Inverse folding.
């Protein structure tokens, strides 16, 4: 598939923080996307300047640790992320429990600077490190009848204080159509700014689907299931009128309680100007073909 690489910046040189890749991020052996001079300035020309580490790691949604934006950075260090296994099951040739370390040895870690848009109408730009979900699915061998991918977050009442509250039907679950899941923009993130991904951002590995609202990008994944039926998703179960299965970023489809036409860039200060929301969060050229013939208002 032809990609516009301006939208998938692989530059590791955007700020000093990005220069240093630690052990876990290097474990994959191959770290792709060695700083291509010029992409940084291209990113800035597009207004794609990554948020500060502090914005990205102290303003979070991770309801297993509480519903406040600062709860995850306060409490998520209680989560044990080593050892970690991901169970890959359902319609695959090689089902099983995959150790995180073995996954990292097999995958190619790249940097991807993506826009990130929460359904609550705030946004950031995040320099993720990660690998394509398609490569992980290849490892397990997707069978021909599979049509969807279901994901599940860890459920650890002793480590996740937010699970005491029935905000959602735990564990947190999400899902994608298989063609969305294997799209080259869809990644499993394992790092930010070249460091291991902090617990509050979904350690040790979380989904990132940059053209969808943030809640689709499920954190701290323990189970991946290939299936031929559309899987239930947490926010859709809790309020199907407000949160659809697709949840593609779309400035023309309002949330029942607020407009999605504009967004507040996090970190821009109290009086930061709102900016217009882009169709598919700016990835229209790459992903619009996935939805040809689909009524995006009905399938929100
Ligand atoms: N397991 C789990 N995953 C989750 C969430 C959550 O509460 N639990 N919140 C979602 C929402 S609403 C958003 S906006 C993003 C936030 O990711 P960030 O904190 O890394 O910015 O994570 C998503 N993934
Ligand atoms: Mo969100």
């Amino acid at each position: 598939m032809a990609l516009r690489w301006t939208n998938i910046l692989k530059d590791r040189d955007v700020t000093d923080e990005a220069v240093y890749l630690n052990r876990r991020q290097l474990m994959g052996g191959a770290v792709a996307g060695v700083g291509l001079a010029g992409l940084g300035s291209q990113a800035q020309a597009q207004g794609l300047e990554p948020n500060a580490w502090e914005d990205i790691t102290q303003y979070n949604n991770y309801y297993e640790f509480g519903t406040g934006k600062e709860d995850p950075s306060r409490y998520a260090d209680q989560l044990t992320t080593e050892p970690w296994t991901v169970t890959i099951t359902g319609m695959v040739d090689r089902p099983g429990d995959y150790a995180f370390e073995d996954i990292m040895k097999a995958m190619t870690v790249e940097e991807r600077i993506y826009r990130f848009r929460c359904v609550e109408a705030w946004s950031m730009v995040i320099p993720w490190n990660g690998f394509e979900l398609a490569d992980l699915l290849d490892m397990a061998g997707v069978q021909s009848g599979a049509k969807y991918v279901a994901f599940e977050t860890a459920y650890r009442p002793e480590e996740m204080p937010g699970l005491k509250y029935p905000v959602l039907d735990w564990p947190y679950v999400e899902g994608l159509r298989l063609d969305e899941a294997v799209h080259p923009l869809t990644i499993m993130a394992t790092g930010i700014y070249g460091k291991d991904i902090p617990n509050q951002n979904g350690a040790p590995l979380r989904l990132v689907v940059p053209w969808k609202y943030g809640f689709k990008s499920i954190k701290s994944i323990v189970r991946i299931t290939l299936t031929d039926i559309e899987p239930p998703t947490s926010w859709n179960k809790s309020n199907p009128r407000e949160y659809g299965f697709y949840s593609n970023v779309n400035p023309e489809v309002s949330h029942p309680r607020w407009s999605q036409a504009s967004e507040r860039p996090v970190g821009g200060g109290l009086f930061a100007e709102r900016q217009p929301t882009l169709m598919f969060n700016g990835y229209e050229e790459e992903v619009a073909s996935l939805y040809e013939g689909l009524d995006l208002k009905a399938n929100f």
About this structure: The chain has nine helices and twelve strands.
